[in-house]
Amino acid sequence: MREFYFDPVNEAETANYVISFLPSNNILSSMSIYIKFPDTFDQRLGKKVDVFIRSGLTGDIKTKIQNRFLIITNFNQYTINPSNPVKIELVGVINPNKPLIGHSGFISVGVLRSTDNFYVDYLEQAALVETVSSPSWLTLHNITTSNVFSRVPASYSLNITVDSAVPKTSLQGKIYFDLPPQFEIGEGNLRCSNLTANLGQNIRCQLDKRTVVLSGHENTLTSNVAFKVDGIDSPIDEVKSDSMFVRTYDGFTREII
C-alpha cells in the first residue's frame, strides 16, 4: 500500500477517498481489481460516487460499485513501476459512523485473475478507517441566487454564522459550499467577493468537482460571515435539485468543524 487517506474524516460526512498501491505482480488486462470496504459502510458507499483513476492504469477503464466492492476492469496491462503506482480516487463516499470503541474496519485490496477467480495479489488489511465525531452546527441565515434558469450561470450570496472558529488560510482553514448532484462536475477558478469585512480583500474561490472552496482569508473567522460567488453553472436540465450545504473546514486535521 503506497497511500491512503480520506477527507474529511468526520463520521457521516461525504468524503473523497484516495487509495494508492503497488502490486507485487504485473496486472494483465484480463484481470480485475477489487477494493472492498468494511461492513460499516453503506452497500452503495454513497448516494452518488464518482471514481477517478489518478495514475497507473490506462485504457477504456470500467468501474462498478456493488455490495461495498469497487470493481475495476477493462484496463491495459499494468507493469510494475514504483514511480507510477495504481492510484484511485473515489468522490462522494459517505463515511461510516464513529463506533463507541475501536475503529470502523479495514479496506482490502486485491487483483483477481478471472480465469480461475484466484487473487494474484491480496492485502486484507490494506487501510484502516478511523472517523471522528460529527461537526457542530453553523447557522445559515440565507442563500440567494441571481437566477434559477437552467444552462445559465448564476451568482450565489451566502450569509452564515459559524459556531466554531475557522482557521485562517495560512493554517488551512476553508469554507465549503457544496452543490447538489444535479449540477455538473467542474474545475477552475470562480469570481468571489466578501460581504463581511472579516473575510478581507483577498478571498478566492475555486470549483473542485461540485464543491466551491473559499480561501484567502487572513484572519480566523468567527461569528457572522457572508460572501458572494459568481459564475456557477446551473444544471443543464430543468430540475428540482437536492439540498446545498455549507461547511467550514480545518485542513490540518482534515475535519469539518
Overview of this protein structure:
This protein is mostly beta strands. It folds into two domains: 3-128, Immunoglobulin-like (Sandwich); 139-256, Immunoglobulin-like. The chain is 0% helix and 50% strand. The strands form three sheets. Strands 10-11-16-13-14-15-12-17-18 form a nine-stranded antiparallel beta sheet, with no helix packed on it. A five-stranded antiparallel beta sheet has the order 5-6-3-8-9, with no helix packed on it. A four-stranded antiparallel beta sheet has the order 1-2-7-4, with no helix packed on it. A hairpin with a 4-residue loop joins strand 17 and strand 18. The chain is globular and about 65 Å long. The mean pLDDT is 95.
- CATH class of the largest domain reads Mainly Beta
pLDDT under 50 segments (min length 5)? Answer: none
CATH architecture of the largest domain: Sandwich
CATH topology of the largest domain, by name, is Immunoglobulin-like
DSSP summary: helix tally: 0
Termini Cα gap:
30 Å
Total number of beta strands: 18
Strand residue content: over 45%
Largest sheet data: 9 strands, antiparallel
Q: Sketch the topology as an H/E string, one letter per element.
A: EEEEEEEEEEEEEEEEEE
Q: In what order do the strands lie side by side in the largest sheet?
A: 10-11-16-13-14-15-12-17-18
Radius of gyration: 20 Å
Mean pLDDT: 95
What is the percent of helical residues? under 10%
Domain count, please report it: 2
General shape: globular
Structural class: mainly beta
